[in-house]
Design goal:
By secondary structure, the chain is of the alpha+beta class. It is built from 18 helices and 18 strands. Strand 1 and strand 2 form a beta hairpin. Helix 13 packs antiparallel against helix 14, helix 14 packs antiparallel against helix 15 and helix 17 runs antiparallel to helix 18. The longest helix is centred in the middle third of the chain and has 21 residues. It is rod-shaped and about 115 Å long. It holds the Pfam family RMC1_C. This is Mic1 domain-containing protein. InterPro entries: RMC1, RMC1_C.
Length: 537
């Protein structure tokens, strides 16, 4: 490892706390703090080599490293801020601005009791101290790999979480934020919601088409990758899985039982890790389990020959957590997890489907933006990205394009979109062309032709009748044996023309084409009408 040498010492000094080994995206990295050069040097471990991957700047004399959802958190302890990095991308620029670590829902009545573990002192009353306020980055904090903090002075174990909303709000580079959110798995549902919100916001803000197109391309590419790997369908199955309302209660276990028992029952979380202290090396066992009573949850910690016990009440309004606020970055929450949050965390993809993009991005933007030309340009870019990834687009997006073009009376472009297959044929598209072409006959004709192209015989015959192509409707019905259209539609049109010969021809056609037509009330009614017309003439 390369380290800068201090002026008064010819050999660099490397302490144990200056080396951090982590796993990110399945890769093993080692980070070494160079306090002289104020650099955090990164090395990646391969099977047969260790390769330096660059370095990151540090701004504090004391630095620690955590990993949450494959995001590297560099704690600048002196400044009490955290800088986030995503090692998946080639750039070593931070994901966002430095963010503080804050408390959410701080427990104000927590008490920590300290007592020796020797049997001689079991009958003595424990000394109790009130800890009404938890200090951030105190000297008693020990950062445990990958995302835990052991507070030995208070007897608490914290779990670090990311506030994705705060991270996304602290960066103005929307495409980079979307790429970051699409790779998140622990809170995939929240990441998806943020992606949809960001995409909708930049459209409402009328950002340049190139910026929005880049954002949409990221969402489409991520969805395509999730489809190919099967993660998207797995996520749908997880979302539909029921959440159990019953929580199993278990009595707390002591540290010795935690070391000997490697199988944890449901409702109990056990963490066994090695802790290196200045004077000794010991095994630390931390156990969190649901109490049989409703009073609270106990956290037990055993370090060396001392035992620390802290009783906490994890009620709905009194839950001790260590998490970001809206304006904060990384936070921490207790190891105790809610079942609903655990179910949500099982959804491991934030991929956004094209139908969701239409429902939550284009649809609301159409209602609020008021600029059809701008929105059409964005949807065309979206269709281009989907075509490159060979993703099917649902008809509702094409219907929206037709509505926007017709609203701006851009019928010539609409015709080119249909001819060049930019808008894929479908029944919904055909009916929208008929609707939008009420004042433009060529557009209406495109809708009629699309119904015929799709072999929708019944709908095609009806559209011919409604648009005055009666003889063509009869010929098409006879050629393709379309018997689902009500005979009265043909007869009403013929009767409305006041032409007895046409009415007689239609009656004769229906009698030959549909043998059972003679026994219907329509045959008797219109035969009587035909006789009256012949008598009056």
């Amino acid at each position: 490892m390369l380290m800068a040498k201090p002026e008064g010492n010819s050999m660099p000094v490397l302490a144990a706390e200056d080396v951090h080994v982590i796993t990110v995206y399945g890769r093993i990295y080692s980070f070494q703090v160079d306090k002289v050069a104020m650099q955090l040097r990164c090395y990646r471990f391969y099977r047969d080599a260790v390769v330096q991957q660059g370095s990151l700047p540090v701004y504090s004399s004391k630095v620690s490293v955590s990993v949450v959802d494959n995001v590297l958190l560099v704690h600048q302890v002196d400044a009490k801020v955290v800088i986030l990095y995503d090692l998946f991308v080639d750039s070593r620029a931070p994901i966002s601005a430095p963010l503080p670590m804050l408390l959410r829902g701080q427990h104000r009545g927590s008490q920590a009791s300290f007592q020796p573990s020797s049997k001689a002192d079991e009958n003595s009353e424990p000394e109790q101290t009130n800890d009404n306020e938890v200090t951030l980055y105190k000297d008693g904090w020990t950062f445990l790999n990958p995302d835990l903090i052991c507070d030995s002075s208070c007897g608490l174990l914290w779990k670090i979480h990311l506030d994705l909303e705060a991270v996304s709000a602290s960066s103005s580079d929307i495409p980079s934020v979307l790429e970051f959110l699409q790779r998140r798995k622990l809170e995939a549902i929240k990441a998806k919601q943020l992606c949809l919100s960001l995409a909708r916001t930049i459209i409402l803000e009328h950002r340049p088409v190139s910026v929005v197109a880049r954002a949409l391309d990221i969402l489409v590419t991520s969805y395509s990758h999730a489809i190919k790997t099967g993660n998207y369908f797995k996520g749908i199955a997880m979302e539909k899985s029921p959440v159990s309302d019953t929580q199993h209660a278990h009595s707390p276990r002591n540290a010795a039982d935690g070391l000997s028992n490697n199988v944890n029952t449901r409702g109990s979380v056990k963490i066994n890790s090695a802790v290196i202290t200045p004077n000794e090396s010991a095994i630390q066992s931390l156990s969190l389990s649901d109490s049989e009573s409703d009073e609270g949850t106990a956290v037990r910690s055993s370090v060396g020959n001392k035992s620390i016990t802290s009783a906490e009440n994890f009620g709905a309004n009194d839950q001790l957590s260590f998490e970001q606020s809206r304006s904060a970055g990384p936070g921490s929450v207790p190891v105790d997890a809610n079942n609903v949050e655990q179910q949500n965390s099982e959804v491991n993809t934030a991929a956004v489907s094209p139908d969701e993009i239409y429902s939550f991005v284009f649809g609301p933007a159409d209602e609020m933006a008021g600029d059809p030309d701008y929105l059409v340009a964005l949807i065309v870019e979206f269709l281009r990205s989907a075509s490159v990834e060979k993703i099917r687009i649902y008809p509702n997006t094409y219907v929206l394009v037709i509505q926007l073009l017709a609203r701006g009376e851009r019928y010539a472009e609409l015709g080119l979109f249909i001819i060049d297959k930019i808008i894929e044929p479908s029944k919904e598209v055909a009916y929208q062309l008929l609707e939008s072409g009420r004042l433009h006959r060529p557009t209406r004709k495109l809708g009629i032709d699309m119904l015929r192209q799709l072999n929708l015989h019944h709908d095609y015959v009806l559209s011919l009748l409604q648009n005055g192509y009666h003889q063509e409707a009869l010929r098409y019905a006879r050629k393709h044996k379309v018997v689902t259209v009500r005979p009265s539609l043909f007869l009403e049109e013929a009767y409305g023309s006041n032409d007895s010969q046409r009415l007689a021809a239609v009656l004769r056609f229906l009698t030959d084409f549909m043998p059972a037509f003679k026994s219907t009330p329509d045959h008797a009614t219109y035969s009587h009408i035909l006789a009256q017309l012949n008598a009056s003439s």
